[in-house]
Structure formats: C-alpha cells, structure tokens
Amino acid sequence: MPSTSLPSLYISHGSPMTALQPGAVGPRLAELAAALPRPRAIVMASAHWLGRTPTVSAAERPRTIHDFGGFPEALYQLQYPAPGAPELAQDVAARLAAAGLSPVIDPQRGLDHGAWVPLRFLYPQADIPVLQLSIQPALGPAHQWAMGRALAPLRDDGVLLVGSGSITHNLHDWHHYAQGGQAPYVLPFIQWVEQKLHADDVPALLDYRRQAPFAEQAHPTDEHLLPLHFAMGAAGTDRLGARRIDAGIDMGFLAMDIYRFDGAA
User: Which residue range or ranges hold the Extradiol ring-cleavage dioxygenase class III enzyme subunit B domain (predicted)?
Assistant: First the structure.
C-alpha cells in the first residue's frame, strides 16, 4: 500500500464532558494520532447525526455544534475550528452513489460532539479538513458496513475514516453507577465484541443484536454501535486487522474502547 494509507478507526467518544475531563481516552487518542501518518482529511460517521438517507457535510467552515444541555458553561465555550472538505464531500457522495446508497449533500452541517470531542485529542490544532457522514439506524448494521466498504479506497489516499460512538451506551444507567460500581453487562459485551473482531467474524458482528450477550442492555438503541460497523466496512476486507485500545470504563457503564482496523495489511 502507499505510505499514505491509513487504518479506519472506531472511537468511543463518551460524555460531552470528555472534552474537559479526558480520563484515559484523551491520552490514548493522542498516542494513536502520533502513531499514524498525518491524514490529508477526515471523514467522521457520528452517532449524533442520524437520518433516513446517507448525508455528507460539505461546509467550508463547519461550525462547532454543542448538541447537549445541562453541562458547565465552559463546555459551551469550546470550539473546534477545523476547515471543511467540500471537494472530498463530492467524492464521498459519488462513491456512496456508485454503491447504490443514494446519498445527499448538506452544505451547512457542522461538527457535533461525536466528532469534535475526540478530534480535540486526536488533532488539537484543528488544522485537518473534516467532514461528517450521517448514519441510518433504521437500515441496520449491514447498511453502515456497506457505507464503510464504499469509502474504504479513500484510506489509500490519505483519508482517515472514523466511526464515533460508544462500545456500550445505556443512558438509563447514568444514575445507577454514578457513585461507583460497574454495570454487569459491560465486560461480557465488550469481550464478545473483541473476540469476534479478532476472529474477523463479520456476520456475527452484523447480527450482534441476536448473538452478543446482553446486547439489549449494552445498546437499547443501535446508533452508538453502528459507527463500529462503518469502521469495519472501511477496513476494506473481511480480514479486519482489528486492534483494541483500552481506554477504561466511564461512570461504570460507558466502555471507552477504541479500535483501529488495518485490513489485510
């Protein structure tokens, strides 16, 4: 592969407060970025941009979206002023269209916290062009995988393809473990995911709702795991080359695992 080839990534972005209290995930993301070739651009598929149709952002200067409420004022002052990538957006849309995925382009969409929070630790200078790609929960894991597969060749052209979600995400447990303890489903679920990724068992991962232990508890809704399926598809081959980066468990129920997928390489 050319020297500009990059892995695809799956990032557990955690609470918006991760931006102010990075815990283990901040240093792990910084270390990961330091180990990668510098991308020419970044495509982020975030759990916080949902829709019925794949939508590609094409803003020249995407605004920082504070898509949350009830947090400290300091969080709302944070900005991530990265440039956009309008030309790449056209390329992304064309590749998705060629795969039969019927994309549209949004010329104004900014960066939600699923994008800018982890990017603050990956590339704090905010000097790499970024665009976002929406996900479609109603269409399921295989659809997100197909989106990643359609864009996988961009990795060989210096584009970093990133899915941003959370390896476990059950906000009903927000208060249950705030004072300590750990949700009993977290370890069995993340261990199953790691085992299946290392075994390149793509069919099982696409069917995680039926096959994974505690799937309903770990993900009452799909949107925070679907970016994993996007990143898997973006590996470009069923040989995923998955490597897990342990970033701990936040608040007893949010596992902060990061994965890089190097594909057959």
Answer: 31-238
